[in-house]
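can u do me a favor
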């Protein structure tokens, strides 16, 4: 059956499932943990009393005011707090719109951009965990935004290029799987911290734990083989063939390699990528991609991810309900 693991008979390529390719893609997918962990952790941190007492005492005061109890909009009505939260997305968007991420990915390689992302996120985790002022937090969030921009582009491309053609979709979904899993990890960490004595300084732990997945991504950027496509784009055909043979687990990669060479030539001939993207030929794919992303946002899932901690009283209500249910049983 075509498409099954170990088949390899796709378009005549001798491309089978190999643990080398899987390990490369799984390690690279740790880049999804950066975005996922930040999505899950920040809403919890901004509802921790220790964090609010240090940087946003006015918000904490509003939480204890009778007139604003239960009204999250009134409680969190702070422009500085909103800036601290949104600056990550602003810095990431700037990297994307200016073409910085795409340029680095093309001319430095996906592997090296993953390493850059890991370094930036490690620096950000240290800054945030040790922050003493709002300015330090904002700077750390800017670093995070740039790092997430780098990872969000380089990792899916890297996984697509390293995966066997008939397993490309499955391997590429490792990024989304890790991203979603680390949203859960962040929520669990926030929950544990909020119900322990570490609540006054625990927010530093919540933000500092981001160092772990970023270190994994950094190691991946250092030790993983670069993708054959990226090496061909940068004029390294011999190394590209060796890496293709490594991830395919066979020396017989002539047909796939020759196709990659042709694709690299076609890509090099594209002098106006934005014009090509908006051309009639690619318009259906562009519209479908934009609509699927837009509809995903409209489902409202991001509201749950960002603000579930605030709505559940930083997790204490959820824990109390769970504990009560267990005791009744």
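np, heres the sequence
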């Amino acid at each position: 059956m075509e498409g099954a693991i170990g088949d390899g008979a796709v378009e005549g390529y001798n491309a089978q499932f190999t643990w080398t390719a899987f390990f490369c893609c799984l390690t690279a997918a740790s880049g999804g943990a950066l975005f996922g962990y930040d999505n899950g952790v920040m809403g919890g941190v901004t509802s921790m009393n220790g964090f609010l007492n240090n940087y946003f005492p006015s918000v904490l005061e509003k939480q204890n005011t009778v007139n604003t109890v239960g009204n999250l909009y009134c409680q969190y009505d702070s422009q500085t707090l909103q800036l601290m939260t949104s600056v990550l997305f602003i810095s990431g968007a700037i990297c994307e719109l200016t073409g910085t991420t795409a340029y680095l990915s093309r001319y430095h390689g996906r592997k090296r951009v993953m390493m850059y992302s890991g370094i930036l996120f490690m620096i950000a985790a240290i800054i945030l965990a040790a922050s003493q002022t709002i300015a330090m937090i904002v700077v750390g969030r800017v670093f995070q935004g740039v790092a997430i921009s780098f990872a969000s582009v380089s990792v899916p491309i890297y996984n697509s290029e390293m995966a066997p053609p008939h397993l490309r979709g499955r391997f590429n979904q490792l990024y989304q799987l890790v991203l979603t899993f680390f949203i859960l990890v962040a929520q669990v960490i926030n929950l544990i911290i909020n119900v322990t004595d570490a609540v006054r300084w625990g927010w530093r732990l919540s933000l500092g734990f981001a160092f772990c997945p970023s270190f994994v991504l950094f190691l991946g950027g250092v030790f993983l083989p670069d993708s054959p496509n990226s090496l061909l784009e940068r004029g390294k055909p011999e190394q590209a063939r060796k890496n293709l043979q490594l991830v395919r687990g066979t020396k017989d990669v002539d047909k796939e390699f020759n196709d990659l060479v042709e694709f690299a030539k076609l890509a090099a001939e594209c002098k106006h990528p934005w014009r090509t993207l908006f051309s009639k030929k690619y318009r259906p794919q562009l519209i479908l991609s934009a609509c699927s992303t837009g509809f995903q946002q409209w489902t409202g899932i991001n509201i749950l991810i960002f603000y579930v901690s605030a709505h559940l009283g930083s997790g204490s209500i959820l824990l109390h309900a769970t504990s009560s249910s267990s005791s009744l049983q």
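The CA atoms of residues 20 and 246 lie 8 Å apart. hope that helps!!
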